[in-house]
Amino acid sequence: MSGRAPDLAPAESPDALRRAFSCFPSGVVAVCAHENGEAFVGMAASSFSTVSLDPPLVSVCVQNTSTTWPRLRSRQVIGVSVFAHDQSELCRQLAGPAPQRFDGVDLLCTDGGALFVAGAAAHLLCELHAEYAGGDHTVVLLRIRSLSANPDVDPLVFHASTFRRLTIDPAAEGAVTGTTS
Ligand SMILES: Cc1cc2nc3c(=O)[nH]c(=O)nc-3n(C[C@H](O)[C@H](O)[C@H](O)COP(=O)(O)O)c2cc1C
């Protein structure tokens, strides 16, 4: 059975694109680093994606206008924290004015320079692996060197320009195999 084609808007319309992109739910991460317990630098990103198990890779897409990424990319290691469901305000703060991003935030510093947000669902200690041009964004591949994770912590979900929390649908519950996550 086939139905009528959907009404398709031209992809040149940024509003139509934003609307379509917002239909795809994602988690949100903090991508952060420090130097000797200070010089904190970081940002929130919803473009995080898992990429590869071997080698262990994840990606984020960074706007080419970002003033934070040029400072982060030169650091030896970068901490990626997967925000927990109760960290939406923290996420907003890490996307807000750079000088106040870390004010009052409970942070975890590794010796090498990775900076994590306490209470996150997962912490990935990463090195920059590769960067690719991706239109008005840069696709950044990060190689995971070490990690800690707690899948029992509900993640923060970003969908339709707002934050949400996952609920389990009993009818669909059950392990899904054959994926990287
Ligand atoms: C929920 C949310 C998701 C975001 N995701 C991204 C992202 O994936 N990539 C990105 O470059 N900026 C993203 N931003 C914006 C950055 O956090 C930050 O505001 C932006 O990089 C401008 O700051 P900068 O000049 O310090 O980089 C997001 C902001 C919010 C609130």
UniProtKB/TrEMBL annotation:
Residue span(s) of domain Flavin reductase like: 21-165
Highest taxon in the source lineage: Bacteria
SUPFAM superfamilies with a match to the protein in the record: FMN-binding split barrel
UniProt keyword terms in alphabetical order: Oxidoreductase
Keyword Oxidoreductase: yes
GO molecular function, one term: FMN binding
Presence of keyword Oxidoreductase: yes
InterPro entries: Flavin_Rdtase-like_dom, NADH-dep_flavin_reductase, Split_barrel_FMN-bd
Parts forming coiled coils: none
Similarity remark: Belongs to the non-flavoprotein flavin reductase family.
Protein name: Flavin reductase like domain-containing protein
